[in-house]
Design brief:
The chain is an alpha/beta fold and about 240 residues long. It has one domain: P-loop containing nucleotide triphosphate hydrolases (Rossmann fold, 3-Layer(aba) Sandwich). About 35% of the residues lie in helices and about 30% in strands. It contains seven helices and eleven strands. The strands form two sheets. It has a seven-stranded mixed sheet with strand order 6-7-8-3-9-10-11, with helices on both faces. A four-stranded antiparallel sheet has the order 2-1-4-5. The longest helix is centred in the C-terminal third of the chain and has 18 residues. The two termini are about 15 Å apart.
Amino acid sequence: MNDVVRAEGVDKTFHEGSLHVTVLRSVDFAVARGDTVAIVGASGAGKSTLLHMLAGLDRPTAGRVFLDGRELGRLNETERGRLRNVALGFVYQFHHLLHEFTALENVALPLLIGGAAPRAASVQARAVLRRVGLADRADHKPGELSGGERQRVAIARAVVHVPQCILADEPTGNLDRHNAAEVFALLRELNAASGTSLVLVTHDRGLAESLGRVCVMADGVLTVEGAGGLSTSRAPC
């Protein structure tokens, strides 16, 4: 299996008392190494839930999810966490940086969690901050950075361990157009330079259509969008 992440027939239903809400319906989705894929759709359509399934942060009600060829449902929580920390990077609409830590310390954190020596983690984190244009901001805390700078730190943290795939959930949604364009260009640059796959959830059609594939989520159903409109094929998006 050459896919970094793959979902097969994934359903997700949330239960609260007598209320049952189905968010994902028989979703098939696959991302090969180096792929760039956009997922678009209305709020509440199930886009973020799908990312949580792909990352093993939540379990599907039915179906299977594979990460780096391993079925997540067959792994225990510790095994899923270790695999996730190696194979995936995450970027969200809000940066989720630790405010008491400097940019350098935030970026080094995934390496330290993975068992790297503090000095080696610091050196690698500083190199990645240089790559995203923030070498001179390494010792600043998030409150001392602009919105665009904070999001670039978040991207540096997501890629510092050279993941196979980045899952980005509206990473430019909280930025002005200029900073959004810079952050998106950076994600594309990292994809091209490192072969890291990119799955981008976005409301921005312009960004979506510049990626290799656009998938549309509507009422929990995922379909691939092509030149002729929405495909009715049940092949993986």
